[in-house]
Design goal:
alpha+beta, two-stranded antiparallel sheet, about 10% strand
Length: about 60
Amino acid sequence: MDINVRKMLYDILEKLNKEGLTIVMISHDEEAFKYSNRALVLGKENKVIENVLEKFEKGEIKFD
């Protein structure tokens, strides 16, 4: 997806989530963390992460 289409997609998903819709998304795009409440990170350790954006910005989320 180009940057404009990706922005439109995230805007739509954010609006739907604010309306109460639960959204499950699979992505390799780290930008998705900006729009996430919770993430399941799969790797050597499978873990559910709360406060995703805050932890990502602090460097607390590592990809293996």
